[in-house]
């Protein structure tokens, strides 16, 4: 990042909180031992892992022994979906998910379809929200697992996990939720939310990249087959030496988030409102998503302008045309296409995402830059009035 740049890409990743770095350093100085070793240094590492897991559990009001540590949400999604579907395969092979899910979810279903599972994709309404009645209509007697994300990474749309999860519970279907964009940012109470499997990642809420968790509810029939094989760590659900430092980082990240969540949400709301107020008057502007969605993300399309040129014209703003993971494909976002946007509309989309360090000055500058860039590109477009 240069000094001049303005980072508005918090949905792709967030800066690591200084207290998290401090804790990692402290932990690495306290013990280098393998947490599976039975000597004193190994036991200290185990204690640190237990404390840190407890911090994450407290944020989510979950039992610490129901959290499996992973390398992030991609691994957690893979473990939950492939592991859950395979564990329940003897009961049925029908699975349900949504077109607007992250690739870490959709690609797993594609693999499972090749293994002989039958996948039904449900579509959201034009605002990105999935109607529980549409979801329910897709379920069958042999449905074993459904995966619906909490907060959408491109649009910020929030799904009604409580209603969707309740439908699954009634029918004894495993409900997986990719909560990569939600954990630490919106209130989640796993003691009451009817969710069986939930994916978590630290780097979306001010922790480091490369650490996350999968929550697995304590309920009959709720279990996953491992996708990795090796030592006996984490009840063999996720073998591999546990990273004391990274798990400590996730725990500290979670406890900071637990303290800040309401203040963070209020701040994000005011940032999103300021940006929207600054650009809403542009002719041909469309909001992609739901005005009541997660306030950390604002995704807009604009008629007559192409996204990649817009992205360049917006410099020094650091924003996204879609999901960071798919930005190399240059294809119009499949998430926005699922919301009924045309190729041209989807191609012009820009995702602004805000965070703790975003200031009103930055957002006002971003709004002005966006207005100018759209006007400039429209003036250059073939057929524009000279
Ligand atoms: C909704 C969603 N799911 C999964 C992921 C993948 O998470 P990770 O980078 O931790 O593997 C991301 C982030 O890119 C995401 O936004």
Description:
- The chain has helices spanning 18-30, 40-60, 73-87, 103-114, 132-138, 161-170, 244-279, 307-313, 334-338, 343-347, 360-380; strands at residues 6-7, 67-70, 94-98, 118-122, 143-147, 174-178, 197-201, 212-216, 285-287, 297-302, 317-318, 350-353.
- Helix content is 39%, strand content 13%.
- The protein has 2 domains: 6-14 and 260-380, Aspartate Aminotransferase, domain 1; 18-256, Aspartate Aminotransferase, domain 2.
- The strands form 3 sheets. It has a 7-stranded mixed sheet, sandwiched between helices. A 3-stranded antiparallel sheet has the order 9-10-12. It has a two-stranded parallel ribbon with strand order 1-11.
- The mean pLDDT is 95.
- The protein is α/β, with parallel strands linked by helices and 386 residues long.
- The protein starts with 5 loop residues before the first strand and ends in a 6-residue tail after the last helix.
- The structure holds pyridoxal-5'-phosphate.
- The site of pyridoxal-5'-phosphate (PLP) has 14 residues, from helix 3.
List keywords for this structure.
Aspartate Aminotransferase, domain 1, alpha/beta, binds pyridoxal-5'-phosphate, single chain, 11 helices, Aspartate Aminotransferase, domain 2, three-stranded antiparallel beta sheet, globular, 2 domains, seven-stranded mixed beta sheet, 386 residues
């Amino acid at each position: 990042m240069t000094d001049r740049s303005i980072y508005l890409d918090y949905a792709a990743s967030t800066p690591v909180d200084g207290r998290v770095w401090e804790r990692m350093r402290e932990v690495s100085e306290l013990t280098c031992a393998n947490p599976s070793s039975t000597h004193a240094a190994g036991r200290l590492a185990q204690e640190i892992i237990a404390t840190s897991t407890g911090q994450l559990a407290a944020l989510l009001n979950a039992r610490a022994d129901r959290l499996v540590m992973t390398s992030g949400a991609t691994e957690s999604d893979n473990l939950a979906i492939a592991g859950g579907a395979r564990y329940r395969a003897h009961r049925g092979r029908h699975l349900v998910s949504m077109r607007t899910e992250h690739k870490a979810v959709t690609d797993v279903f594609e693999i499972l379809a090749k293994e002989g599972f039958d996948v039904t994709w449900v579509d959201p309404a034009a605002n990105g929200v999935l109607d529980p009645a549409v979801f329910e209509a897709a379920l069958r007697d042999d449905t074993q697992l459904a995966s619906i994300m909490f907060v959408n990474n491109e649009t910020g749309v929030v799904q009604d996990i409580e209603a969707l999860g309740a439908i699954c519970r009634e029918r004894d279907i495993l409900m997986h939720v990719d909560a990569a964009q939600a954990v630490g940012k919106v209130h989640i109470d796993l003691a009451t939310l009817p969710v069986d499997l939930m994916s978590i990642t630290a780097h979306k809420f001010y922790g480091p990249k490369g650490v996350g968790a999968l929550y697995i509810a304590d309920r009959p029939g709720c279990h996953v087959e491992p996708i990795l094989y090796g030592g006996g760590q984490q009840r063999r659900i996720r073998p591999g030496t546990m990273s004391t430092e990274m798990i400590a980082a996730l725990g500290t990240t979670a406890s900071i988030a637990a303290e800040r969540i309401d203040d963070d949400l209020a701040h994000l709301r005011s940032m999103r409102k300021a940006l929207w107020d600054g650009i809403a008057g542009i002719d041909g502007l469309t909001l992609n998503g739901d005005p009541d969605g997660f306030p950390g993300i604002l995704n807009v399309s604009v008629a007559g302008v192409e996204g990649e040129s817009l992205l360049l014209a917006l410099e020094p703003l650091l924003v996204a045309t879609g999901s960071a993971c798919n930005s190399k494909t240059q294809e119009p976002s499949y998430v926005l296409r699922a919301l009924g946007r045309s190729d041209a509309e989807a191609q012009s989309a820009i995702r602004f995402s805000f965070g703790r360090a975003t200031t009103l000055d930055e957002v006002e500058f971003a709004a002005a830059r966006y207005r100018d860039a759209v006007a400039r590109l429209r003036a250059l477009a073939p057929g524009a009035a000279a």
